[in-house]
Structure formats: structure tokens, C-alpha cells
Write a structure and sequence with these properties.
heterodimer; A: alpha/beta; Rossmann fold; 6-stranded mixed beta sheet; 18 helices; 35% helix; globular; B: two-stranded antiparallel sheet
């Protein structure tokens, strides 16, 4: 199969459509981050009254495109921009998006403790009378109309927290629709509006999106969920590696398999037989029925020296699973380390049992950004450097210098402030901090997030070496290539549960991607 | 400018600004001491003046150093001034009106200080009240209790001589309180800079979640920080009564702002970016000498709070500037 053929087809389709109803047209949009092209001549045509799907695998440039349209990132080049058919000279997306685009982000920007009315006022303000007092009657009328338009039956003065997740999303959508002019060229951009919703509630949101489109707005719908894209969208644009590989292709011509092919650039391989784990050594960690926020009933075990991978889409619960294991978040279910139960909700107990954790939010939870490399490295077992109650700064610094040498951290300056290292070197320091302790279990969330290509190899090497010394390692990552490279077994998570386990011959990065998207495939 | 010259300019510039950051405040301290000595050669550069400045600042220094511990852990303790006032009054009342021996008065008062710190700590860490509000609430309660135990009067009668001697006895021309201050400086410098406890406290201020995930008892450490500042406020309270020979129900709150000013200004010097004992001492005497000198030049007495308040704003402004600079880099 050839991706080129697809884009030709895509172009042909959009070229044949009439210019009528065109809300936003962007052609040749290019964005680079430090020399790397993230968006490569992207073309996007959105029409009023149409739901337009935007999909792409992790790293395809989807988020960058949304952030460029909103003006958050400055584009590097663009050939043509038309809004409502009017060509824009030197388009400034920040200004354009204020007037024409309404965004609903994944976190919805709602405050649970405030009332529905107050949440609406956050972006819409209050109607006021002649003396500047809030006009309650006008406000009430406006709110009733808003709630009615998205199909919420609720008292506007009740706290938002009393609404279900779908209704809260609907409110955010309704609020956003009202924040733009509504005239020609206005577009509602929904960035993964359904990711945080339980499956049973997704239908409500999709219905509201259809209604908004039929009222005449154009909608750009970004989602990982292919079945939703096919259900709600009229046309789909697919991004792969920053390029449009299908432009405004009618969903009638597509199915789930075809979408996955477009996203991944190859046909879907589905492994029907999964091998159960067999004759593994005595496990060092056994987890049973692990349950917590976004995680339900996960079981696994891991042997000393083994590396397992945990992957899935953003928001699937894989990060939360890591947090449950190390006690960063309260959990139910049982974790046993070498046979004895690990008490939940206690990082202290986890560290004492030799279970250590490198979080994805490195600057917030993985490091002391404004303290030195040495102070970061020695934190978990400062006692080792202490004699007669006094820290021996000399041995502390020597130890840090040793680790910096071993891990190839540059600059190898133990006194440098952590924040001033590059991402990859920061990660090496965080890893050194824990590897020094010769941990039994290492849980590492997004090991190469914000890490440059060269340092990536070093991070993988460090993980491998730790495993060779007997550390059981759990690598949580959204990159299929990453887990396939380092892990001997990969768990794929969707909506908080394990949906596939890959190992042996069937474990490769394509198979992992397939398994991630297999859950998203429409059964046909 | 070519590549080479850029790097050349940059190589000495950070070193210079680094030294200014570290030693600038000390240089200013020496400079203003010299300036006032030249302007008032008869009264300023005298042993008498030095003794006065040291004696009047010793109690404030003890209070400010105690305050460093919660500040380093990332929390405010606004109760310290009221706590000092209450403990000073309690010392006077217990020893003067109830006739308790000094050996009983002092442990009781110090225990009260610890209890106040514990209350602050529990309110902030366990009940999760914002430290600003929690310690202001506790402090306000203490100001009420101070008036209750004193009936709103200055208490001076019957304070035993041995208690007064603890503060006033002179050694090489300086009251003992000055030596207590030096002892406190040494102990806290050691604890905050050289021990794991001090490192943990700084680390909590720099990244609490990281410290928790490192398996350290974050909650207990945070509570202990308030206990330390509460205890030091009570030490300062006992010494205040011992030095002055009386307890004024309104005296405590006057210590609050100068202590914060010294701590924040101190965090911009010696070890810039970190609350540190030596920086605090330099800052405190910089402010004290500045105020004393201005007053000798004829400035009115209200210049002290104006000077302290301005110093606090300048200090916090400098620190904020440094942070946003760091964020841009």
C-alpha cells in the first residue's frame, strides 16, 4: 500500500468540493522546533456545518497543529490562510483564534467547586445593567439558553461538581460555542473531549457535537478514538510525521482499519494468539487487583532482572498504575515484594522495600530543580554520607562525580543547579539517584520524555545495566518503539485495564502500536 | 561581536555577579559602617555603640534564625512575634507574680513555645490550613492570651534576680544574651548547612513531592520546622524579659517584620537563593547599623519601620527578579 496514493486521493476529494461554506482554510503550514520539522506544509480546510476529524499517532504533530492554530506556537511558514473565504495577509493566529476559534481543551477548564453559572462567567463574563450590577434576569436567560442548547437539564446555580463528567464536558462545549462570534469562519475546536469520559457517556457528547454542527458551526474534532471519529465526523484529516496523509477524506470512504493504516503508514497486523507467561523465576513483585484512580483490577508479576513495558494512549491509566505501585497515590489491591505485603499509599514503605520511582513530571516530583546535582543525588540515603550527624560534603561530591562519569552526564559538575542541565542529563541524575541504591524494583514513567536522541541511548543503557544487576524494571511509556526495545514483556492498557500482553516473537513496535489501536478499531 | 569575544566576556561576568551576589550585602554593611564613622566620628565608631547595637539585636537575631527553618521548608510562620511577646509575658508573670523559681519558669515557657509550634505545624501539615492563615490565627490567639495573663499591664515587679542575671550579666563588656546569639548562630549554621535534617528542610522547600517520593517523612519534618521556630520564639521571649527586666504586652509584634526582613534580605546574600543563617545575620546588622546611623544623624525614630519595610520589599523584589531571570534562561 502506498501512502502517496492516499494523499492524492485526499487532495482530489477536497479539490472537488465547492468553496461554499468554507470557514477556515490553511495551506502549507510549517512549524519547526530547533530544526526538527514538526508540521510540514499542513493543509486544513474546515467548513461550516461540518464535523472535521483530526487524527494521528503520538508525535504526529496533532497537538502542535492545534497549538499553532490557537497562536500558542508561532508558525515558521504558511502559504495561505483564508477565514470565511477572506484571504489573510500575514495571518496572526493569536488574534484570529480570539475572534473565530473556540477551544475546548482536554481538561475543560472548569472549576468543580463553583456553580454552573460561575463557571460560565469565567469566560463569558456577566451581563450587567446600567449601574454595573450583575443583571440576574439576563444572566438566567442566557444560562437557560446555553444549557438547553447542549441538552443539560440542571439548575444553573448548583455546583458544577454535581454534574456528571459528560455533562461537564457539554457545559464546556456550550460555553465555548458562545464565546465566538458565530458568524462565517467560526470554528469549534474540541481537543480530545471524550478521553476522560466513561464509554457510556461518550454518546451524549457526540450527539451534542452533531447538533452544534447542524446549527451551522464548523467543528474540528481531535480524538484518539477511531470509532468516535467514524461515528461523528463528516470528513477526516490524518497526520503522520507532521504531514497530511489524508486531507478531508469523507468518513463514508473509510473504516477503522483504513484509519490505522493511514496513521501508522502500514497495514494493521493483529496477533490473535497471546502467550501466557511461563516458567519465569520467582517473582520479586506480585501485584493483584490493583485499583485506584483510572486503574481497575490490574494483575502482574515481575522477576528480578526482568524489564516489562506498560503502554497505552495518553490518559489510559498507565501513569496512574505506576503511581499506585510506588504508593504515590492511594490504591486498593495488593502488592507483594519478595513475598511480603507492601503497605499502600506510602512512598516511604516503597523505598524501604527497594521499590523506587522516576516520575514523568521530572521538575515537579522527580527532582529538586533549584538545588545542586549532588543534593539531588544524595537525597534518598543522605545518611550514607553522614558521620557524627554531619554530612561529609567531600564524599558526597565525589560520589556524584563518579555517577556523572558513569552515566555520561554533562557538564560533569556536581555543584551545578539541577534545572540548568538539559533534559537528558537531568534524567541521568534522577536515574543515578535511584540506581545508587541498587533497587529491587525500578518504576520509570516516560523514561525519555524531554530527552534528546543521544541521551536516550544512555538512558536505555542504564536501564539495561540495572536489569543485568537484578533490578526488576517497569518502563511506562507512550512510545511503542521504546517499550518494544527495552522490555521483554509489554502490557497494553486501555481505560485502566490490561487489554493485551505481548512477549517473545510477537513483541515488536508495530505489534505494540497495533495492540494500542486494536481496542480502537471498529469491529467489522 | 564574534563567538570568541562573547565567551570571553561571559567567562568573567558570572564570576563577578556571583561575588556581588554573595558578598554584596557584607560590603554594603562595611561601607555604611565606614560612612557613619566618618560622619559621626565621636559617637558611631565606639565600643559603646557596638555594644548597644549587638545587645539590642541579639534577641531579634535569635528569633529570625528560628524563623529560617519554616521559611526554608517553604512555609510562613507569622506567629513568632506574638509567640515571643506571650512567652516574655509568661516569664514575667510566672516568676514575678506566681513566684515560681527560675528553674521552673524557664522550662514551662519553653514548653509553651514548643506547644505553639506544634499547634502551627499540625494546623498547616495535618489540617492543611494555609500557613499564612494558620500562623496568623494562632498568633492572634496568643496576643489575646498575652493581655489575659497581664491584664494589659506592663509586668516588672518581683522578677527574680537570677532570671535577670541570665540575660544581663556582662562578659567582656557584653551581656550574656549576645553570647547566646553567637551560640544560636553556630548551632543553626551547623544544623541547616551541615546535617541531613537541614538538607531535608531545604529540600522540602525546593520540591516537597520529590522529598516525599524519596521516602522521607515529609509531614513530620514540616511540623518540626514550626516546632523549631516556636521554640526559638520562646527562647527569645525569656531572654527579652531577662534583658529588659519587664514584659510589655505590646512588645511582641514589633519583632515580626524585622525578623522577616532580615530572613528575606539574608536569602539574597552569602548563599543567594537560599535562606541561610550567615546571610540573615549580615542582613540584620546591615538594617540595624543603617537605622542606628540614621538616627545618630538626626533621623526621627519612625525611620526604623520604614527602613525595615523597604528592605523587605527590596529583598523579595531582588529574589523575584533572580527567579524570573532563571526562568528565562
Amino acid at each position: 500500500m502506498s501512502p502517496d496514493r492516499i494523499s492524492e486521493k485526499g487532495h482530489a476529494v477536497s479539490a472537488s468540493s465547492s468553496i461554499d461554506g468554507e470557514a477556515v482554510h490553511v495551506h502549507g503550514l510549517t512549524k519547526r522546533f530547533s530544526g526538527v520539522t514538526v508540521l510540514d506544509g499542513v493543509k486544513l480546510t474546515l467548513r461550516s456545518g461540518e464535523v472535521h476529524g483530526l487524527i494521528g499517532a503520538n508525535g504526529s504533530g496533532k497537538s502542535t497543529l492545534i497549538k499553532t492554530l490557537s497562536g500558542f506556537y508561532r508558525y515558521d511558514a504558511v502559504d495561505e490562510v483564508r477565514i470565511g473565504g477572506v484571504p489573510q495577509v500575514h495571518p496572526d493566529f493569536r488574534a484570529l483564534s480570539k475572534r473565530h476559534f473556540a477551544f475546548v481543551h482536554q481538561d475543560r477548564c472548569l472549576i468543580p467547586a463553583l456553580s454552573i453559572a460561575e463557571n460560565c462567567a469565567l469566560t463569558m463574563g456577566y451581563p450587567t445593567n446600567a449601574i454595573g450590577q450583575i443583571d440576574r434576569a439576563a444572566e438566567r436567560a442566557r444560562l437557560d439558553a446555553l444549557l438547553d442548547s447542549v441538552g443539560i437539564s440542571a439548575d444553573p446555580y448548583q455546583p458544577l461538581s454535581e454534574l456528571g463528567p459528560a455533562q461537564a464536558t457539554l457545559l464546556a462545549i456550550g460555553r465555548a460555542v458562545r464565546s465566538v462570534s458565530g458568524g462565517a469562519g467560526s470554528i469549534l475546536v474540541l481537543d480530545e473531549p471524550t478521553t476522560a469520559l466513561p464509554a457510556s457517556e461518550v454518546g451524549l457528547v457526540l450527539k451534542a457535537i452533531r447538533r452544534i454542527a447542524s446549527d451551522g458551526s464548523g467543528v474540528l474534532f481531535v480524538s484518539h478514538r477511531l470509532e468516535e471519529i467514524l461515528e461523528v465526523c463528516d470528513v477526516v484529516t490524518v497526520l503522520r510525521d507532521g504531514k497530511v496523509v489524508a486531507s478531508a477524506t469523507p468518513t463514508a470512504e473509510l473504516d477503522g482499519n483504513r484509519l490505522v493504516e493511514l496513521m501508522l503508514g502500514r497495514t494493521l497486523v493483529r496477533n490473535s494468539h497471546r502467550k501466557e507467561a511461563s516458567n519465569r523465576d520467582v517473582p520479586v513483585m506480585v501485584a493483584r487487583a490493583l485499583t485506584g484512580p483510572r486503574v481497575t483490577n490490574v494483575d502482574f508479576e515481575i522477576a528480578p532482572g526482568e524489564i516489562i513495558g506498560i503502554t497505552g494512549l495518553v490518559g489510559c491509566g498507565k501513569s496512574e498504575l505506576g503511581r499506585l505501585i510506588v504508593g504515590r497515590q492511594a490504591r486498593s489491591g495488593e502488592v507483594r515484594i519478595a513475598g511480603s505485603v507492601l503497605s499502600p499509599n506510602s512512598p516511604h514503605a516503597a523505598v524501604r522495600a527497594g521499590v523506587v520511582y522516576v516520575p514523568a513530571d521530572r521538575l515537579l516530583a522527580g527532582s529538586l530543580p533549584d538545588m545542586t546535582a549532588t543534593e539531588n543525588l544524595s537525597l534518598p540515603n543522605l545518611k550514607a554520607f553522614t558521620r557524627w550527624g554531619r554530612i561529609n560534603h567531600m564524599t558526597e561530591r565525589t560520589e556524584t562525580a563518579n555517577w556523572m562519569g558513569q552515566t555520561g552526564t554533562v557538564p560533569a559538575n556536581p555543584a551545578q543547579i539541577f534545572r540548568n542541565f538539559s533534559g537528558g542529563n537531568q534524567q541521568k541524575i534522577v536515574l543515578s539517584k535511584w540506581l545508587r541504591l541498587d533497587p529491587r524494583v525500578l518504576v520509570i514513567d516516560e523514561p525519555t520524555q524531554g530527552v534528546d536522541v543521544g541521551a536516550k541511548e544512555d538512558v536505555y543503557r542504564l536501564i539495561r545495566e540495572a536489569a543485568d544487576r537484578g533490578t526488576a524494571t517497569i518502563v511506562i511509556s507512550s512510545e511503542p518503539e521504546e517499550v518494544a526495545r527495552v522490555a521483554s514483556r509489554v502490557f497494553v492498557i486501555d481505560r485502566g485495564t490490561v487489554v493485551a500482553v505481548l512477549e517473545g516473537d510477537e513483541l515488536n513496535s508495530d505489534a505494540v502500536s497495533d495492540a494500542i489501536f486494536a481496542g480502537k478499531r471498529v469491529s467489522s | 561581536m564574534t563567538e570568541a569575544t562573547t565567551s570571553k566576556t561571559r567567562s568573567w561576568l558570572p564570576t563577578l555577579t556571583g561575588s556581588v551576589d554573595k558578598w554584596g550585602a557584607l560590603a554594603v554593611l562595611i561601607l555604611i559602617a565606614v560612612v557613619f564613622s566618618v560622619l559621626r566620628p565621636a559617637t558611631f565608631p565606639t565600643f559603646q555603640n557596638l555594644t548597644t547595637i549587638l545587645s539590642t539585636q541579639a534577641i531579634l537575631a535569635i528569633l529570625a534564625i528560628g524563623l529560617l527553618v519554616p521559611l526554608a521548608s517553604g512555609e510562613f510562620d507569622l506567629s513568632i512575634g506574638f509567640n515571643l511577646g506571650f512567652c516574655a509575658m509568661l516569664t514575667a508573670v510566672l516568676s514575678g507574680q506566681f513566684g515560681l523559681p527560675t528553674a521552673a519558669t524557664i522550662p514551662i515557657v519553653l514548653l509553651v513555645g514548643v506547644a505553639v509550634g506544634l499547634l502551627n505545624g499540625i494546623a498547616v501539615v495535618r489540617i492543611k490550613i494555609n500557613a499564612f492563615i494558620a500562623t496568623l490565627g494562632v498568633g492572634t490567639i496568643l496576643s489575646g492570651l498575652t493581655i489575659w495573663v497581664s491584664n494589659g499591664n506592663v509586668v516588672f515587679q518581683g522578677i527574680p534576680k537570677d532570671l535577670l542575671a541570665l540575660g544581663r550579666t556582662q562578659l567582656i563588656g557584653l551581656p550574656l544574651t549576645v553570647f547566646y546569639m553567637i551560640f544560636v548562630i553556630l548551632v543553626f549554621w551547623f544544623v541547616l548547612e551541615q546535617t541531613p535534617y537541614g538538607r531535608y528542610i531545604h529540600a522540602i522547600g525546593a520540591g516537597r513531592e520529590t522529598v516525599r517520593l524519596a521516602g522521607l517523612p515529609t509531614d513530620r519534618l514540616r511540623i518540626s520546622a514550626f516546632v523549631v521556630s516556636g521554640f526559638m520564639a520562646s527562647v527569645a521571649g525569656v531572654l527579652q524579659t531577662a534583658m529588659v527586666g519587664s514584659a510589655n504586652p505590646n512588645a511582641g509584634p514589633d519583632f515580626l517584620l524585622p525578623a522577616f526582613a532580615a530572613a528575606f534580605l539574608g536569602a539574597t546574600t552569602i548563599r543567594p537563593g537560599r535562606f541561610n543563617v550567615l546571610g540573615t545575620i549580615v542582613a540584620l546588622f546591615l538594617l540595624a547599623i543603617g537605622i542606628a546611623g540614621l538616627q545618630q544623624l538626626g533621623a526621627p525614630f519612625w525611620v526604623a519601620p520604614v527602613f525595615n519595610g523597604a528592605a523587605l520589599l527590596v529583598a523579595v523584589g531582588l529574589a523575584a527578579g533572580r527567579r524570573s531571570q532563571a526562568a528565562r534562561d
